[in-house]
């Protein structure tokens, strides 16, 4: 068979040159193909941590306590200054109680008077006159004795007349009619004597009951004033530090509902952050969280470690965006440099929380991305 190219010139042909130049590219091509196959094979085995970030701040467990005046009054004494440490139950402001003291004294005086009247009435009802102390019931006792003596004289006179008339009637000297009239007069005198006693006793018993009821009403009014008096002393509702003091002084007037200061409580500090509704399903109690403080460069100070301890069930709105409040406890209340210097947490500091949501393989992530491209319904929901 006749050769197309002599052996001597084949080495210098274009075809031979092209083959020599492209043999390395074939190797690279095969290596890439092998790497792609290996990569696709190991995609399901490569796990990646998925996390989400949310903004938050440092706060105490409860809100700050606001000191307000419950009434309108003049300040008699004040024990407040900015940043002062106070304890729960400390009296911080004394308001003038002159007006309420006058009312209380009037009620106590009236109660004391009524008690004296009640004591005298009890003596009168028992027939004891040496224990009566008030002029009112000494006069009534004298009136009672005078009335009884008058009625007793009338009764004794009627008793004598009845005895004489009875003897005359028995001897036939006096008629039945005259005897009956004298007997009737005797009964009238006896009834008048008994009625006088009963009238005084009934009036005293009724007066005693009225005074006792009046004392109960006075006591209720006094207890109401005691409760009102407690409002004249503004007391610290919690232990903490005075903040945003308004600067009012002695002799100043304050009105009901006026804000005087705030008490920043000495409670443990917590982290409160805001998680979007799309991520809240991954958050659970006792979940670990890393906290990056804005005030401390994490490259130098590091991150705080914490744990989720409460997830608010209701959605909150921040800047017209829905969020769920998530509260976290921090293991330490400070960050520390390598030199040993500590930076302590303070209320109001802003931060970023990093929550570990889940672990996903690379294959899952690629599938999710492709599914987002190909699923119009999901795309519409996201839009």
Characteristic key phrases:
383 residues; alpha+beta; Elongation Factor Tu (Ef-tu), domain 3; six-stranded antiparallel barrel; four-stranded antiparallel beta sheet; 8 helices; disordered C terminus; transmembrane
Which helices and strands occur, and which strands form pairs?
Layout: H1 7-10, H2 14-42, E1 47-60, E2 65-68, E3 73-78, E4 85-86, E5 91-95, H3 98-126, H4 135-170, H5 176-230, E6 233-235, E7 240-243, E8 253-254, E9 259-265, E10 269-275, E11 288-293, H6 298-301, E12 304-318, E13 321-330, E14 334-336, E15 342-344, E16 350-361, H7 362-374, H8 376-382
Antiparallel strand pairs: 1-10, 1-16, 2-9, 3-5, 3-8, 4-7, 5-6, 7-9, 10-13, 11-12, 11-16, 12-13, 14-15
Domain AprE-like beta-barrel: 269-353
Coiled coil: 141-168, 201-228
Domain LcnD-like barrel-sandwich hybrid: 66-264
Shape: elongated
Number of separate helices: 8
Low-confidence stretches: 378-383
Sequence of strands across the biggest β-sheet: 1-10-13-12-11-16
Largest sheet, in brief, is: 6 strands, antiparallel, barrel
Question: Overview of this structure, please?
Answer:
With 383 residues, the protein is α+β, with helices and mostly antiparallel strands. It has four domains: 37 residues; 116 residues, Efflux pump adaptor protein, beta barrel domain (Elongation Factor Tu (Ef-tu), domain 3, Beta Barrel); 52 residues, no CATH class; 135 residues, Helix Hairpins (Orthogonal Bundle), CATH 1.10.287. It is built from eight helices and 16 strands. The chain has a six-stranded antiparallel beta barrel. Strands 2-9-7-4 form a four-stranded antiparallel β-sheet, with no helix packed on it. Helix 3 packs parallel to helix 4. The C terminus is likely disordered.
């Amino acid at each position: 068979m006749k050769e197309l190219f002599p052996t001597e010139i084949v080495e210098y042909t274009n075809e031979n040159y092209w083959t020599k130049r492209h043999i390395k590219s074939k190797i690279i091509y095969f290596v890439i193909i092998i790497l792609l196959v290996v990569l696709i094979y190991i995609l399901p085995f490569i796990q990646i941590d998925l996390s989400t970030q949310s903004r938050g701040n440092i706060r105490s467990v409860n809100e700050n306590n606001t000191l307000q005046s419950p009434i309108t009054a003049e300040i008699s004494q004040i024990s407040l200054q900015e940043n002062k440490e106070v304890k729960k139950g400390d009296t911080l402001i004394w308001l003038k109680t002159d007006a309420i003291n006058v009312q209380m004294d009037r009620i106590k005086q009236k109660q004391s008077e009524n008690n004296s009247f009640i004591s005298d009435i009890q003596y009168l009802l028992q027939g004891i006159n040496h224990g009566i102390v008030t002029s009112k019931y000494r006069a009534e006792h004298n009136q009672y004795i005078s009335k009884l003596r008058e009625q007793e004289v009338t009764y004794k006179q009627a008793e004598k007349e009845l005895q004489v008339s009875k003897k005359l009637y028995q001897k036939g000297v006096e008629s039945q009619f005259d005897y009956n009239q004298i007997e009737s007069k005797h009964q009238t005198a006896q009834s008048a004597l008994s009625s006088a006693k009963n009238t005084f006793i009934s009036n005293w018993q009724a007066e005693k009951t009225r005074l006792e009821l009046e004392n109960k009403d006075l006591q209720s009014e006094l207890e109401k004033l005691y409760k009102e008096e407690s409002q004249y002393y503004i007391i610290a509702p919690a232990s903490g530090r005075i903040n945003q003091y308004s600067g009012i002084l002695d002799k100043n007037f304050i009105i009901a509902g006026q804000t005087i200061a705030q008490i920043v409580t000495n409670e443990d500090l917590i982290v409160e952050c805001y998680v979007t509704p799309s991520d809240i399903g991954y958050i659970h109690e006792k979940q670990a969280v890393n906290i990056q403080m804005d005030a401390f460069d994490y490259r130098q100070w590091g991150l705080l470690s914490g744990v989720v301890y409460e997830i608010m069930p209701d959605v909150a709105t921040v800047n017209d965006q829905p969020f769920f409040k998530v509260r976290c406890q921090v293991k330490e209340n400070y960050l520390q440099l390598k030199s040993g210097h500590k930076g302590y947490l303070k209320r109001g500091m802003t931060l970023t929380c990093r929550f570990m949501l889940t672990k996903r393989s690379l294959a899952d992530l690629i599938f999710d991305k492709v599914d987002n491209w190909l699923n119009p319904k999901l795309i519409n929901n996201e839009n």
